[in-house]
Amino acid sequence: MDRKRIIIAGPCAAESDEQISIALSEVQKRPVDFMRVNLWKPRTKPGFEGLGETGLPLLVKVAKAGVNPGLEVIMPSQAGLVMDTVLPHLAADGKLLLWIGARNQNHTLQKEIARACMKDPRVMLMVKNQPWPSEAHWEGILEHILEAGFPKANLLNCHRGFSPTGDNPLGLRNMPNYEMTARVKESTGVPVIFDPSHMGGTVANVYEVCKSVAGQIFDGIMVEVHHDPVHALTDSKQQVTWDQFDELLNIIYQVA
Ligand code: PEP
Ligand code: MN
User: Fold this and answer.
1) DSSP H stretches of helix in 33-164
2) What is the mean pLDDT of the chain?
3) Which of 96, 97, 121, 235 is a plausible cystine mate for 12, CB 3.0–4.6 Å?
4) How far is the CA of 11 from the centre of ligand 2 (A)?
């Protein structure tokens, strides 16, 4: 894994064995470091909240295929469950990526998730910025996690944008703030992953955000990719196809 170019891709939510099998075969053709196999989905309104524990065999399937799985955990118990399930099946040099989502802003839970994750050095933890644009709060999440003893070498930050206020001519779902990102990266020393999917909110805007980004501040990218976005159970408007993902990689990294 190139720590300056970490690539995370896959569906917003794991939906079925068939969908994950298709995504797995697409991931295996590409330079993807972690495949999204997301089991627990915080939702704005009640709806499909993910497969939950019934999706754990999908993580095993991905790990057994030699691909590193990545997913959000909302509760510390979920981190433990995923680790117990996946780690025995990881390749010798394999990694498991867990992340704390934008809406999960309880520092006690954040620290407990970090303490669970640090029980195994193969587990990387990523923190997404909170929805509202406070630099101090964003830095604080990372500081709380480091204070809990989580090793900085396994910590990633993710910029997914802030809830829009004021001018938003493109109608972005969340607004990037690249200056703030650069300052948080500088003050914490934690690498930052770019999430154009939750900034864009639509496929057209995902392209716009990728074209506008000054790649240098980011150390990787996380993109939501689905083989049939129109029928996706979550975030169907912003998920790109695997062919579109190749175009985005080309825009950002000139990878064909
Ligand atoms: C996600 O990445 O799956 C997600 C739900 O995004 P966010 O936490 O940024 O809203
Ligand atoms: Mn999503």
Assistant:
1) 56-64, 76-86, 107-117, 135-147
2) 96
3) 235
4) 8
